[in-house]
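Chapter review. Work through the record for Rx N-terminal domain-containing protein before attempting the end-of-chapter questions.
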Amino acid sequence: MAAVAVGGAFLSATLQVLFDRMASPEVLDFIRGRKVPDNLLVKLETSCLALNAVLNDAEEKEISNPPVKKWLDELRDAVCDAEDLLDEIATEALQCQLEAKNKVRNCIPVSFNRSGIRLKSKIEEVIIRLEDLAKQKDVIGLRERVGGKSSQKLPTTSLIEDTGIYGCEFLVMLPTNMRKLVNLRHLDISRTSIMKMPIQMGGLKRLRTLTKFIVDKDSGFQIEELGELSNLRGTILISKLQNVINPMDVLKAKLKVKRHIEELTLEWDTDGIVSQSEREVLNHLLPHTNLKRLFINSYSGTSFPSWVGDRSFTNITVLHLKSCRCCPSLPSLGQLPSLQDLSIVGFDKVVRVGPDFYGSCSSAVTPFASLRILKFEGMLNWEEWLCYDGEHEQGGAFLRLQDLYLVDCPKLSGSLPKQIPSLSTLVISNCSQLETSLPSAPAIRDLQLMFCNEVLLKEMPPKLNELRMEGFHNLESLLDGAMDHNHCLEELIIGDCPVLKFLPHGGLLTSLKKLGIFNCKELQFPTYPSYSSLESLDISHSCNSLMSFPLDIFPKLYYLGIKMCRNMESLSVSEGHHLDLLVLEIEECPNFVDFPSGGLPAPNLTRLKVTNCPRLVSLPQNMHMLLPSLQSLYIKDCPQVDLFPEGGLPTNLNRFVIDVSEKLFANRMDWGLQRLCSLQILLFSNLAGDCQDVQSFPEENLLPTSLSTLGIAGFPNLRSLDKRGLQHLTSLEELWIKDCPKLKHMPAKKGLPMSISHLQIRFRVLGTPMYLFKNHHPLIGAMANQKVKWASVQPSNILLLECRKDNVSEQNLQIILNWYCSISGQSINLAKSDVFCSPNMPLEEQQALARTLQVNLVQQPSKYRDTISNRNSLGGREGSGLRSGRESASDQSRLGRPSVAGDWQIIIKIVNSRSRKFHRYGTVYEGLTVQGEKVFFGAISSTARTSTGALLEAMLEAVLTAKSQGFQHILVLSNSRSLMQTYRHNTTMDWLDSTRLTDLRFLNQNGVCCNVFWVPTVVVKDLRAVACLATRMPMHFCWFPTAGPTLLYNELM
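Structure tokens for Rx N-terminal domain-containing protein:
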């Protein structure tokens, strides 16, 4: 058999991602904005380059050289950690919505909860690890090589001396005759979808690396074969332990003598049913005391064996216990001398954490002497945390604890440990019954209190640097007297405090650098000049009393975001005053009318965004002189803006996105676009669809030659592209056209610039987004002679089609289904599909449709009950639907009017999980009626660039599914704040995500009222298991189960 080595390729690709991220202007500007020294990035890049140079040599040697294999394993971990850190930075930079491409001092989003000091520390930690690995490469004999490693085929006999098998992610089964590879030493299947092990694995006695072992359901005695693998080392996951038939067989696995195993994961797959045998199984899984990291997942025993937490495990630094839902008490863990990271998640039966948790009272060892990170999450019935008995005499049980997280513990009350002298980060979320003072910890710099009792606010740490407060529904005044002596607070975020009226006076505001306020409608924003240090200010859906915003009281402000402030009318600035603003964003302010008289004096402004301001008449005056640094201009849903300011746009403009009105677009030849020699990205849209006279576009001499990307969207009568306006664009690389349904003519051969390499044409069929691929439409087929390299786009996946007899025949429906299959790369199993039709459709036509599709015809079956109303389910027109056809329960709702709680017709829960190993996101969504009845369920395995992108992809599909079922008032619940903010602010820097947002807004403007709310993880935790599964294999489907996620979970397993 062929041995496939993918470790080096994985590392090389990951390092390339790191290089790209480090070179990203958004990341660079963000890091510099946090005052992190530039030389750290240089060190990080230098270390990655040095390591990348020897990857080819390491890949060849790792099979036969154990030190090299170990070195590569450590490098993979370090690179993944670096990738995670940069991914987090990039995500926060995305939320900051900075798109300027030159290296300027960018804004810092107030949602970033870590100070520059902590960010610098994290980067330094990664650099130290990479530099150490770079030094080791010479010691273990790695050398730089030119060129890549050629693939080799290995013999299939037992004569193999040294080899390793590393499975790629699509591998689902190992060969049944694996036992013949008696000299095999390395078997890494950690990134595969393998669900079953071959028999007689114990014959591979020379095996050193076995990353995963799956206990088979039908032959659970296989676990004993681990006993023959005496040379195992490194990391191993033993999963599906519920399949062990006889607990005594576990003893034969001989984990206790495997001294080289450093990381052990023990995993069950149960439904939370109490199992008496599982304790015995876990007891017999006693590992060697050299173990460093231990993870136990979904254990259903009622207690832990004594070895879990025994002080003889002197090397354990990381211990995570997750979803042990049947255990009423925690194991004794306080005596582990080297434990640094402890996570306890999902212990539903635990009511009290007491002395047993700390360990033996007779021991002279201070409990948790080395612990740095402690996390309790999802402890739904936890009520009391008893302090360590010797706290006052010996100084406490957590002398070195730095980070403490208490999340989703709704019944926790009483007191918290008092003496935690090293605590620097404290996060308490959804612990509404906790009424106590905070721990005495003078070192706390970062405090996050979310949906808790306001008693916790009475006494604040004296040197607090960052404070986040959310969900205090009865709080009227902030921190009255609690922070009078605090002059260190630099970041303050306040959210979801509906009756909060006042911010504190005095020195607190003077020290602030970042202030974020969201969902605090009654808050009276103080406008006296006390913001001498403020650099970033974000106000969203708050401060209803604020009508005019004075800019000159913020001498150092460089980011200002005002969003969904319904009474905001204008900005003001004193004459002769110059602003330091870099970014200004005004969004969804329905009464915003004016910029400062005479213009906006902001010479450093690089980004200006104004959206959904229906009363705004004009852009800032004298933009060409007062805004010389402006690079990004974004204007959308401002229908009263019908003229550009005198003098035109700033000449340094690099990106221009505008939603035009009919009158404004009619004057486009007067805009002066052709003189903007720096303009590279230009996107036109006409969301209102009122530009009826535009039939050909663009005109000659309208566009500048510097354009690299041109987008046109929403022109209902556009019929052709004018080659005279395009052929001189010699730098044009991307051209996309969207929602121009009458477009039929592209320029003839050689009519388009030869530089074009990306073409996207998108239109809508029956209100459903469809994408055209090469050879599926004459417009794109005609591009073959133009040498277009890429003429497709990642499709929006469509699973539900609504069809009407008056415009779609049976044959056309079949064509649409075939189209979907070719576009999405998926197939529709019609044999397992049903079709039901509107009662208005004649029976013979229903039967003809079913015969054409070769599906079952059903008449309102019970599993689709209430999906078809007794009235005309398709708005009074005859029709049919593939699992669709529900009419809105509220026909009187006005377009765009936000629903109140009682108006929601369906609730969609969305959650996702990221797999570093598989490099994809698994996202799951579930549609429920307001009574809790399941309507539909879907899972997606996505290769989106960000977590928010994956969630937007799933949200779009879920909303389309709900719409096809007739639901129009949709409430989306997710544990991702980023999704909520991105949707509400309607902004993202990724162009694919922008497309998804545009789709959602299109639906919103066509009768679908949708909103997104953040919820605690516990609300969507039942979907997480399926989301994790979805990361393991390519999948994309939606169905209507009767058993919900459990059925899907079993199907996948």
